[in-house]
Amino acid sequence: MGAPVSIVLQRSERKKYEQLCRSGKTAVQLKERLTIVLLADDGLNNGEIAKRMSVSAHMVGRWRKRFAEHGLSGIEKNLPRGSNHGGKNTQAQARLRKKIIEKTTTEKPPNATHWSTRTLAKTLGTSHTFVAKVWRECGFKPHLINQFKISNDPQFAEKLEDVVGLYLNPPDNAAVFCVDEKSSIQALDRTQPGLPLKKGRAETMIHDYKRHGTSTLFAALDVLTGKVIGECKQRHRHQEFLAFLKTVNKQTPKDKTLHVIVDNYATHKHEKVKNWLKRNKRVTLHFIPTSSSWLNLAERFFGLITEKQIRRGVFSSVSDLEKKIMQFIEVHNENPKPFVWTKPVDEMMAKINRARLALSNV
């Protein structure tokens, strides 16, 4: 057996390969091959590298030789085995790539709702790694689906302009609040305690739970400051909404007009609510378009409290749930950060019109 192939790295090359070895995004196989190269650069022979890494000397020699001949590209993947497996960019490979893109975007497999790399590779007679490569290049993710709903509100543009106008250019000497209800929040207690987070293990939580009842959170988000006025109630009828509206009114300086952004829930349009608004001229309700909850910034706060307090919370009773919700709001208000709206109406309408046109062509 001859002497092993000599590996001599430049300082910049060595630094780059060491960083790749430390990166969590580098494939395990590539880390192993880079380690062989780095040890070879240190002057170790194949047998010494094999012993240190618990691999065969034959394997060390193979990747050492490939690096010497082809550089980093030589060890990033196995040697090409034909155009269908990621070899040279031949006309055959280009045709195959076109077929992969066409089938991915226009067809579905006979027994599934979407392709996988393996089912498409089997259909086209290629390797799943080549399909995955094409998908990465095109940004295809057939296993994912995005949900959407375009509002059919006949006054969509007017309502959108009204609400976004309050976000981007609020009236002088006015307070703007986003008000909404998060209903049916369950007070769930676990049947067994979980294990805490520790090195090498995530926090655990048993899937069994006890239901102690539900509560509804009424929240008013101050658009300017990010502070939240919150109350928990057992129901969410017009009586509760009106009582909360009065609370927001009392906690707002009397010298300011009050603009309240709400959704189209029937309780917000109840006759008693309308009569109260007639008597309290400084309060104005602004309704977002139907099916446009994303336009109400209170929903963003609900996402925050769900993620940080409710979803993984353990509550011994409804009162315990409500206590912890109010504690979260109190802490939030100590250092509030507003959710800043940046998108102008014309850009939003252009995007929505494109979506409507695309749907009409389906």
Structure characterization notes:
Helix 1 packs antiparallel against helix 2, helix 2 (28-41) crosses helix 4 (57-70) and helix 7 packs across helix 8 (128-138). Strand 2 (209-222) and strand 3 form a beta hairpin. The chain is of the alpha/beta class and 362 residues long. It has helices spanning 11-22, 28-41, 46-53, 57-70, 72-76, 91-106, 117-124, 128-138, 156-168, 238-250, 271-279, 298-310, 318-334, 345-360, and strands at 174-190, 209-222, 228-233, 257-262, 283-287. It has a 5-stranded mixed sheet.
Strand order of the largest sheet: 3-2-1-4-5
Order of secondary-structure elements: HHHHHHHHHEEEHEHEHHH
- The separation of the N and C termini measures 66 Å
Q: Roughly what fraction of the amino acids lie in strands?
A: 5-15%
Low-confidence stretches: 79-87
From the structure provided, what is the oligomeric state, counting identical versus distinct chains?
single chain
CATH superfamily of the largest domain: Ribonuclease H-like superfamily/Ribonuclease H
> Biggest sheet: strands, sense, closure?
5 strands, mixed
Q: What is the level 1 CATH name of the largest domain? A: Alpha Beta
Question: From the alpha-carbon coordinates, what is the Rg to the nearest angstrom?
Answer: 31 Å
Helix-strand category: alpha/beta
**CATH architecture title of the largest domain:** 2-Layer Sandwich
Overall morphology: elongated
